[in-house]
Design goal:
By secondary structure, the protein is mainly β. Helix content is 0%, strand content 59%. The protein is built from no helices and 15 strands. The strands form five sheets. It has a four-stranded mixed beta sheet with strand order 7-15-14-11, with no helix packed on it. It has a three-stranded antiparallel beta sheet with strand order 1-4-5, with no helix packed on it. Strands 6-9-10 form a three-stranded antiparallel beta sheet, with no helix packed on it.
């Protein structure tokens, strides 16, 4: 039955049932009024935080001499998923078996060099995601 008010609607809104939705980073005061009385709460809205990085495909199999494009996705605390392929740093655990490019235009492109298995990793903002690349004979 209370009436709700956000003092900075650019930072957060508040629904008629008191549910606050953050819109941008900042601090906002929320007021609940009922029967001539008011109560206040300070709400801090933060930027979404990167929670994990995943690499796709998770597993791939290539013959020597072929290439596979991998992509990296960043998963954030607000539920959003962002393609971070071009921003990630890519590595291979066994560059004799496969290499992976960090060069513009081919970021995340793995090339199979020798029979074996390598883990292809993408690191972004201190988070790392991995994929397995099995290299077979041509």
């Amino acid at each position: 039955a209370a009436t709700w008010l956000s003092f900075r609607v650019s930072v957060a809104t508040v629904e008629t049932d008191g549910v606050v939705t953050g819109l941008s980073a900042g601090v906002v005061t929320v007021e609940a009024s009922y029967d001539g009385q008011s109560g206040y709460s300070t709400v801090t809205v933060t930027e979404p935080v990167l929670e994990s990085v995943t690499v796709s495909p998770e597993t791939a199999s290539l013959a020597v001499g072929n290439s596979q494009q991998f992509t990296a996705m960043g998963h954030y605390s607000d539920g959003s998923v962002v393609d971070v392929t071009d921003s990630a740093v890519w590595t291979s655990t066994d560059p004799v078996v496969a290499t992976v490019s960090n060069m513009a235009g081919s970021v995340g492109l793995a090339t199979a060099l020798a029979v074996g298995t390598a883990t292809i990793s993408a690191s972004f903002l201190a988070m790392t995601g991995d994929a397995t690349l099995d290299v077979t004979a041509p």
